[in-house]
Design brief:
The chain is an alpha/beta fold. It is 42% helix and 15% strand. It is built from six helices and eight strands; from the N terminus they run βαβαβαβαβαβαββ. The protein has an eight-stranded mixed β-sheet, with helices on both faces. The longest helix has 27 residues.
Length: 223
């Protein structure tokens, strides 16, 4: 039986690193993507993965990785920046908003487009977009406008790709790992392993699993 090949962006720390570790423990061949080659190499050694230099905002990086990957079963779009707790929408620096969108929205969009041929070669393609409940319209407040707006758009992208790729058998879902004690999340959150497990659940869904959904711990969240 062919080994499952999974690519995780932003895999050098936090939730991304733990997702790599958990997928590797399940027997996946994990490609750990990170902007820094040194960071990727260190993290990959820790997780039992293969390091991949990948800045999702770099078209050249994305094209190179797409050319090197023959088949891909799981794409986890985890890389994200700018949890801008200091901003409000009325005074937000729009340059900060644009920078967040480059990584949190256009990065996953660009990478997914480039890797679709490899995902279509898989019999069990899965795309997981790591989102946040901050992007839930039902629960939304005024905080973190750059981060929140980019994740709302990522949720919309999830729905669109899910609808387009349903006929190909590729399941596309957004996952909120919850408030997790990472460099971005800060202290006080739940264990990283728990947040990562929520992502791994979506990455390892059966063929009759859901697509086009927004989940945490395997349970639907309000859009």
């Amino acid at each position: 039986m062919d080994v499952t090949i999974s690519l995780v962006t932003g895999g050098n720390r936090g939730i991304g690193l733990e997702v790599c570790r958990q997928l590797a423990a399940r027997g996946h061949e994990v490609l750990l993507g990170a902007r820094s080659p040194d960071a990727a190499a260190r993290a990959a050694k820790e997780a039992g993965a293969t390091p991949v230099r990948l800045d999702v905002t770099s078209a050249a990086d994305v094209e190179r990785v797409a050319a090197e990957v023959g088949r891909l079963d799981v794409l986890v779009n985890n890389a994200a920046i700018t949890y801008d707790t200091w901003q409000r929408p009325s005074t937000a620096d729009l340059d900060v908003v644009r920078d967040a969108a480059e990584t949190n929205l256009y990065g996953p969009w660009r990478l997914t487009q480039a890797l679709l041929p490899a995902l279509r070669r898989s019999a069990h393609g899965r795309i997981v977009n790591v989102s946040s409940e901050a992007a839930s319209l039902a629960e939304m407040g005024s905080g973190t406008p750059a981060y929140t707006a980019s994740k709302v758009a990522l949720n919309a992208l999830t729905r669109m790709f899910a609808a387009e790729l349903r006929a190909d058998g590729i399941l596309v879902n957004a996952v909120c790992p919850g408030w997790v004690a990472t460099d971005m999340g800060g202290p006080g959150g739940r264990p990283v392993a728990d947040g990562a497990a929520s992502v791994v659940w979506a990455a390892t869904l059966p063929d009759d699993g859901p697509t086009g959904g927004f989940f945490r711990d395997g349970r639907p969240l309000d859009w």
